[in-house]
Amino acid sequence: MAQTNSNPGSSGANSQSGGVTRRSFLRTSAVALSGIAAIAAALEPLRDINDPITLQRFFQKHYKELTPAEMEKVLARIAAEVEKQYQLRPQIKDYKPMDGVEFVYCLNLTRCIGCRKCVHACVAENNQSRNPEIQYIRVLKMPHGSLNPEEGEHNYKSEMVPEKGFFYMPVACQQCRNSACSKVCPVKATWQEPDGITVIDYDWCIGCRYCEAACPYFARRFNWTKPKIPKERLNPNMSYLGNRPRMQGVMEKCHWCIQRTRAGKFPACHAVCPAGARKFGNILDPNSEVSQILRTKKVFIQLKEETGNNPRFYYYFDV
Amino acid sequence: MIRGIRNYFTFLSRCARIAFIGDWRYYSWMGALTVFVLLGLNAWCKQFAHGLITTGMSDQVSWGVYISNFTFIVGVAAAAAMLVIPVYIYDNEELHDLVIFGELLAVAAILMCLAFVTVDLGRPDRFWHLIPGIGKFNFPHSMLAWDVIVLNGYLLLNVHICGYLLYSRYSGRKPAKWFYIPFVFVAIVWAVSIHTVTAFLYVGLGGRHFWNSAIVGPRFLASAFTAGPALIILALQVIRRVAAYRITDKALLTLRAIVQVSMLINVFLLLNEVFKEFYGKSKNISSSTYLFFGLEGHHALVPWIWTAVTFNLIAMFLLILPLTRSLRFLNLACVLAIVGIWIEKGMGLVVPGFIPTPLGEIVEYSPSFNETLICLGIWAFGFLAYTIFLRMSVPILQGRLSRQAEDVPLDEVALGTARSPEPLV
Amino acid sequence: MKQDGKTGMVLVTFAVVLWSLAAGFHFNLWGRQARPADIALVDTNFLSTATARVSAAELFATPGADTSDFDCYVCHEKNKPPTLRYDSAGQLLVPTEHKDIVMGHGSHGRNNNCFNCHNESKLDTLQTRDGRELKITDSPSLCGSCHGPTFRDWEAGVHGRTGGYWDTKLGGLTFKPCTACHDPHHPKFPGRKPAPGPNLLHPASG
C-alpha cells in the first residue's frame, strides 16, 4: 500500500555518460538499506496477529453457496478451532428454518421491570464478548408518556426496579421484514431467512459497518478486537449462523437464539424474564401466544414505524 | 508489435526512474512524505493486528475520520471534471494542458479514497468478497456496491485518458481523438456520479434523520466543486514555481470563477439546511443541535463547525470581491475554503449523524493517535503519488522526456531547462 | 558542487531519520494499546431462570419437600373457624403465629379478610367468593375468579412466563401457577436490584 522512495538518488548517480561512482553507490545503498530497515520495522506489528488467516478460511464460500458436504467441513473446522481455544468440544450444527414457521416477538411494556436479566442471559447463551463488552439487548428506562427513545436512559443504576414514573423498553434486533441492513450490505453478508430471522454469515462479513450505520434500532454490534469469552461461561451448543464464537472485524447481532428457536425452544431472553414480559412464537400458527396478542390487544406498536423497516417485533400494553 | 511493447516498457521504465531524480528540495519533500507514509503503515499494521479498537470509533459512532476523509477526497476527485468542462465544452484554450494535471490529481485522489476505505474495513483480507462475479456483490441494492463500481471506473477512465495522452506526447504522435475524447465526456458525467453516489450512501439511510435529506447530494457537489478547484489553483501555482511550467494567471482566474459560484451555492444550501432544521420545533433535530450548539453537556464539535462556517463565509466574501484577483488573497480564500469544507464534510457530516444514536444515546468521538497517524500516512501517500505523477508528466509535456530524446541521460532530463510547452492536442 | 553537497546532506539526514523510525517501530515507542478496563463478570443470580417463589403446587409436586406449612390442623381445631382481629383503623392484625405473612392484597387495606380466599370451615382448602371450594394448590382458579382479564391472558400464555416449547409438536407451552411469581398475600410483583448496565468501548467518551 505504501509507496516508498527507498532509494532516491540511485538514478541520479546512474549517469549514463559514465559509470556509477563509488560515492554515489555507497550513498544510494545506505539510504536503500535504511529504507528497507524502516519498512521491515514498520511491518513488525503484524506479528501480533492472533488469528492467522488460513487458506481454507480465506477461500470459504458464502453460506448460501456451501454444499452440505462443504458445510460439514466448515463445521468441523469451527469445532476444532473452538476446542483449541477453549478446551471444550462444542456441538455445532447448521440449523435450517422450518416450513410453515414465521417467528414474531412481542414485548409487554406493562410488565417489563427493567431488571436486565434478559441482557445477561442473552450474553451467556450467545457467547458474546465480555471485554470489550457486547450486549445485543439495550434496556431503556423511559419516562411515562413518551415512546421517543431519545427520552430514555441507558445506564440507569437504580437501587430498585421498577422505579415509579418510568417504564422499561428493551430493544434488540427487530428482525425487520424490510430491513435496511440487508439492503445496504455490499457483499450480502446479512439477509432475512424464510422464518423471519435476519442472519449474518460471520465468515463472509468484511466489516465495513454500513449496516450498523443503516440500522434505525442500534441493534448491530461490531467486533472491534478479538472477542474475549471466559472459558467457564462458554455455551457449547452452537449454530453456524448464530452463537458460534465470532472473530475480530465482523458484525454480530441478536438472531433470536437461532440454535434454540429452530429446535423448537424459546430464546434465552424469553426463558429468563421474571415478569413474563416476553412472548415469542410462530405467527402462522393462529393459536400461538403471539397470534393471540396481535389479535386481541388494542394497542401494539412497531418502534420507528415511519422508517418503513416493518419489524417483526411488537411492543404492547395490558391494563 | 514486439517493438511496440518494448517501446512501451522503455517509456514506463524511464518514467519510473525519473521519479527518483531531483534536487535537494525534491528529496526533502519526498523524504518527509515517506516518513509519514511509514508512520501510517506502521500504525495500520497495529490496527490490522489488534482490530479497529485502536481507533476512537465505537458501536455508537461507527464511522470516523477515515470515512470523513474519504468523503472529502471523493469530492476533490470529482472536481477534476471542473477543469475538463471549460476546455472540452467551452473550448477554453488557456486551460487545455492543465486538464492532465487535474486528471492526475483525480487519480491520486481516488487512490487515497481506496486507501481510506481499505483501512476502515474490519476484514480487509476479505476484499475479494466485493469483486463482482467472484464474490457476492449486492448490486443494485447497496449504494456501497455502486460506489465500488463508480470509483474504480473513474480511476480507470482517468488513468486511460492521462496515460494515453502522455504516451502519445512521449511518442511524438498526435493522439487519436476517438480514443480519448469520448472518454473525456464520459468522465465529466462520471465525475458527477461518483460524488452523487457517495452522497446517496448517507441519504438512503432512513434511520438517520441528519442524513436523510434531499439536500445532501447537491450540497456534496457544491462543496466538492469549491474545494476541488481551490486545491487545483494552489497545486498549479506550485507546479508553475517548481517545474517552471507555463501557467497563465488567466487560467487561475477561470478556476476562481468556478470556486466563486460553487461557494455561493454551497453557502446558500447551508442556509437552507439551517432553516429547515431549526425553524420548526420538530423532534428530529438532535444531531443538528449537537453539531451547532451541543446537546446535554456534550459539545465537542461546536467549535469545529463554527470555525468551518466562519472560514467558508470569509472565503465567500473574499471570492466575491475583486480583491481575490490578486493571487495572495485568492490563495487565502482557497485555503480557507478547503479547510472549511474539509471540516464541514468530514467531522461536520459524518460524526453528527451518529450522535445521538438511533436510541438516543450520546457517545462522543475523537480520533485516536493511531487513527491520526494512518490518516496522515494516507494524505502523505496521496501527495507522494501526485508528486510522482507530476514528476513524470511535466517533462513529457515539455518535450524533454520523449522517444526522440531517449538517449539523453535522465538526470539531464530531470534537471534540464524547461522549454515552452506546445499544446497537447 | 553546492547542489550536490546539499543533496548529500538531505540524503544523509533522510537515512538517519529512517533508522530512527525503524528503532521507534521496533521498540514500539508510540501508539501502544492501553490495557482495557476490567469488566466484572455478571453475578450468576442474574442468569437464573428460577421464579421468585415456589408455589404450593410445585412444593407438593416435589418429592421429599417440607410441606409442614400447610398442616393447618396441627394448631387449629377442626370445625372451629379462627377469629380475625382488626386494629382501630380497620387493618387486619396478623397473628404472631403467622408473622411471616405480610398483608397487602389490594390498596388502602381492602381485601383484608383472610376468608375472602381461605375456607374458614376447611382451612386446608381455598374458596371463591361464590362459594366454590378449591384445592390449596389450585391458585389460578382462585385468582382468576376475580382477576378475569389476567386469567384469560394467562390461559393463552400471554400473562406470565411460559416455558417448554413454542413448537406444539415438541410439547408446546408449560405454565407456571400464579403463586410461583406472586405472593398471594402481597401479590404486587416485587421490585429488585437491576443487573449492571452497559459499558462503553472507550470509557472516556461517554
How would you describe this protein?
The complex is a heterotrimer of chains A (319), B (425) and C (206). Chain A has 319 residues and is an alpha+beta fold. Chain A is built from ten helices and twelve strands. Chain A has two domains: 10-47; 103-316, Alpha-Beta Plaits (2-Layer Sandwich). In chain A, strand 5 (190-192) and strand 6 form a beta hairpin. By secondary structure, chain B is an all-alpha fold. Helix content of chain B is 66%, strand content 0%. Chain B has 14 helices and no strands. In chain B, helix 3 (65-79) packs antiparallel against helix 7 (181-203) and helix 4 (81-89) runs antiparallel to helix 5. The longest helix of chain B is centred in the middle third of the chain and has 30 residues, at 249-278. Chain C has helices spanning 2-26, 56-61, 139-146, 148-156; strands at 85-86, 92-93, 125-127, 133-135, 163-164, 173-174. Chain C has a domain at 50-180. Chain C is elongated and about 120 Å long. In chain C, helix 3 (139-146) crosses helix 4 (148-156). Chain C has four helices and six strands. By secondary structure, chain C is α+β, with helices and mostly antiparallel strands. In chain C, a hairpin with an 8-residue loop joins strand 5 and strand 6 (173-174). Chains in contact: A-B, A-C, B-C. At the A-B interface, helix 1, helix 2, helix 6, helix 7 and strand 7 of A face helix 2, helix 5, helix 6 and helix 13 of B.
| Beta-strand percent range of chain B | under 5%
Identify the quaternary structure here. heterotrimer
User: What is the general shape of chain A?
Assistant: globular
Please tell me the total number of domains of chain A.
2
Q: Note the run of SSEs of chain B as H and E.
A: HHHHHHHHHHHHHH
What Rg of chain A do the Cα atoms give?
26 Å
Which radius of gyration of chain B do the C-alpha atoms yield? 22 Å
CATH architecture of chain B: Up-down Bundle
Query: Averaged pLDDT of chain A, please?
Result: 91
